[in-house]
Amino acid sequence: MDKTLTLYTGPGCHLCDDARRVVMEVLPPDWQLREVSIADSDRLRERYGLRIPVIAGAGGEKGWPFSPGQVRGLIACN
């Protein structure tokens, strides 16, 4: 089981800071948060450019805003 959530972010994104806090308050200690900036990838900018921050895991993905409960839901699906 992959115990990693990915947070897609962008430069100067204050909402990404808020999203990181929400994730970190519910992320289990044996899980990792991987942050990926979309700035250097045309593919990621096209996919997430207007939606960041976005949290993704095996259970799918959710764009901001997301609640602690929604993050827990993604964790439970992994």
Concise description?
By secondary structure, the chain is an alpha+beta fold. The chain is built from three helices and four strands; from the N terminus they run βαβαββα. It has helices at residues 14-26, 42-48, 68-77, and strands at 4-9, 32-37, 54-57, 60-63.
Number of strands: 4
What is the CATH homologous superfamily assignment?
Glutaredoxin
Fold-level CATH name: Glutaredoxin
Can you write the helix and strand succession as a string? EHEHEEH
Q: Biggest sheet: strands side by side, in what order?
A: 2-1-3-4
Low-confidence stretches: none
CATH architecture classification: 3-Layer(aba) Sandwich
Tally of helical segments: 3
Major beta-sheet overview = 4 strands, mixed
User: Helix/strand-derived class?
Assistant: alpha+beta
Basic shape: globular
